[in-house]
Amino acid sequence: MAGTLLSLSLGGTPQVKAHKFDWRQFEGQMINGLMNVGPLVDAYVLPQIAEFEELTGIKVQVEKLTDQQVHQKLDILLSGKDMYERGARLYRSWLSGGP
């Protein structure tokens, strides 16, 4: 048994290479973001957008709104037919009037 363990440990670990990720595969595309006005967005989110755009080549368009404006806009966007399904599921209870 000890010999088997020793041979297994001496055999080493198989080398696994990570798949090379192409950060610029969507270069030239644009994504839209809807964010609440506030210090956290200003301090943490917005400063990272330029770095993201430089790294990926994706243009980021951010619309900053008050909480009330965000809720009104999301009501409209999430009730549309072109809304990505997974996002709509997150707000299903909100769209139906909440719990």
Describe the largest sheet.
2 strands, parallel
Q: What is the CA-based Rg, rounded?
A: 23 Å
Q: What is the H/E order?
A: HEHEHHH
Q: How many DSSP helices?
A: 5
Global structural class: alpha+beta
Low-confidence stretches: none
Mean pLDDT: 78
From the spread of the alpha carbons, the general shape counts as elongated
Query: What is the helical fraction, as a range of percent?
Result: 40-55%
Distance between the termini: 60 Å
Number of strands: 2
Count of folded domains: 2
Strand content: 5-15%
Strand order within the widest beta sheet: 1-2
Characterize the structure shown.
By secondary structure, the protein is α+β, with helices and mostly antiparallel strands. The protein is built from five helices and two strands. The model has no long low-confidence stretch (mean pLDDT 78).
